Amino acid sequence: MFEGGFARLALERGGHLRVGLEDYEGEGQPSNVELVQRAVALCREGGLPVASCSDAAEILALPR
Questions:
Q1: CA distances from 21 to 26, 30, 32, 36, 61 (A)
Q2: Measured between alpha carbons, how far is 13 from 54 in angstroms, rounded to an integer?
Q3: Could you give the CA distance from residue 54 to residue 14 in angstroms, rounded to a whole number?
Q4: What's the pLDDT band for 6 if we cut at 50, 70, 90?
Q5: Sequence-separated (6 or more) residues with CB below 8 Å from residue 12
Q6: SS3 of 59, please?
Q7: What is the pTM of this model?
Q8: CA distances (Å), 37 to each of 17, 61, 62, 63, in order?
Q9: Tens digits of per-residue pLDDT, 9-27?
Q10: Which residues contact 64 (CB under 8 A, 6 or more apart)?
């Protein structure tokens, strides 16, 4: 997800990231926390906002 530049390209084109071990195809065995940290860093590098847990629940219209 991160090594090939696909995530950066998606963000640059206005897309969103979904982070999770089931999506990971890179080297090593990062934890979910490490993947989230990489995604947040990538967003911050691009000056893009990062949704909080509450933001994500609202965006997805999850029941309270």
A1: 10, 8, 6, 10, 24
A2: 25
A3: 21
A4: confident
A5: 46
A6: helix
A7: 0.75
A8: 12, 24, 24, 27
A9: 999 999 988 887 676 777 8
A10: 57
| Closest CA relative to residue 27, chosen from 43, 18, 40, 38 | 38
Determine contact, residues 59/50, Cβ cutoff 8 Å.
Answer: no
59/26 Cα distance (integer angstroms): 28
pLDDT digits (tens, 9 = 90+) for 21-63: 676 777 888 888 998 899 999 999 999 999 998 998 998 899 9
Residue 1, amino acid: M
Q: Provide the token pair at 1.
A: 């997800």
- In the prediction, which pLDDT does 49 show? 92
